[in-house]
Amino acid sequence: MKITIExxxxxxxxxxxxxxxxxxxxxxxxxxxxxxxxxxxxxxASGEEPxxxxxxxxxxxxxxxxxxxxxxxxxxxxxxxxxxxxxTQFPDPTRMRLEPLRAAAFPVVRDLAVDRSALDRVIEAxxxxxINTGQxxxxxxxxxxxxxxxxxxxxxxxxxxxACVAACPNGAAHLFAGAKLLHLSQLSYGRQxxxxxxxxxxxxxxxxxxxxxxxxxxxxxxxxxxxxxxxxAVNRESMRFSLRHKAD
Length: 248
Known about the structure:
Largest sheet: 5 strands, mixed
Strand order of the largest sheet: 2-1-5-3-4
Number of strands: 7
Helix content: 25-40%
Radius of gyration: 20 Å
């Protein structure tokens, strides 16, 4: 099967970018990243620079992969990472346009690879808990009911791929940040710092990302199927901190 690929090429964040067109022979069962591997083999064999892109586990777990395919983060299949998008699922697999995740917070490193360290800064600001060190507590020392544990695990499933940011016309990261806030607020060991965490994460969002668009595009591309309630959690948790702080 002949595939025409329009790939974004850019040497670095400050260099002008451009689309370059390539033609490759692929098989229908290939994944999107396998198509890129094949393209790079062809480019290297002809003495050209390969297309830079990020990937790691290729099992939809790590969140390292992430490109824009025909204007949609990750690809045409909803809630599926780039590594698990296959040609058989494309409306027209014979032609595709590949770009990096487009967001002001994600500067291009090279070609399809972007710097997503802005998400790391959200975690550094408040996506963690402080616990006493020493001997580990017994697993059943503090009981957590099943529904609470399941809810926390659902929001902890966010893989931090950044597709939600690229899908939002404002470049917001509320789905990502809200997932972290809800995950940690469900469990007792994260409640002590709940208010400070909300304030720190909200402040980092304001610094690096845009405001929520309220359209919900983020949930449509999220590989972890994070619920839109995570978006609402950002303002709710911040307001909770403000009200409690005033009361004190």
